[in-house]
Design goal:
- The structure is a single chain.
- By secondary structure, this protein is α+β, with helices and mostly antiparallel strands.
- Among the domains are: 35 residues; 48 residues, no CATH class.
- Helix content is 73%, strand content 7%.
- Strands 3-1-2-4 form a four-stranded mixed beta sheet.
- Bound molecules: zinc ion.
- The site of zinc ion (ZN) has 8 residues, from loops.
- Keywords: Membrane, Transmembrane, Transmembrane helix.
Amino acid sequence: MQYKRPFYKKWWFWLVIAVITVFTNLGSGNNNETQSTHHSTEARSAKVEKSRKQKAAAEKRKEEKARKLAAERKKAQAKKLAAKKAKLRKKQLAQKRREKRARQLAQKRRRAQKRQLALQQKQKKQLLAQKKAQAKQAAANDRNSRTVYVAPTSGRRYHFDPNCRGLRPANGNITQMPLKEAISEGYTLCKWED
Ligand SMILES: [Zn+2]
């Protein structure tokens, strides 16, 4: 007869217990580990997300700053350009004014010169006319005071030359007198001396 041991003294009982314990522990440990892994992954991803957001915000700020700076620089440049243009325009205007003034002055001078020239010409003309009149008068005076020869008995002509052949028929009956007197007495210039 074999001795019957109680069931807890049998080797397979303990084996079953051990196996159950191991499995239970394994299961819960696994679960715990998974949970903690999950936890840490979540935390890490949140951290990563946060740092990514911060980075993005910083980049955005940086971009905005750069944009602002560029805009300011552009504005300053535009202002500078406008000032330069205004200065140039002012300069050109001044130059134009100067040129206009110079033109006006030159025109004025030309007109004055023209007037002066016209006046000089007029004076010259007047002087010439005066001289001419004087010469004419002198010539007339000269002519009138010249001595001429007439033959009262043989003709109505006067002669400058006392030996003129027109006087031959007078046979020495010749009278001399100023031209003016001869003309006033109706004598006319000899045909030979015309
Ligand atoms: Zn004569």
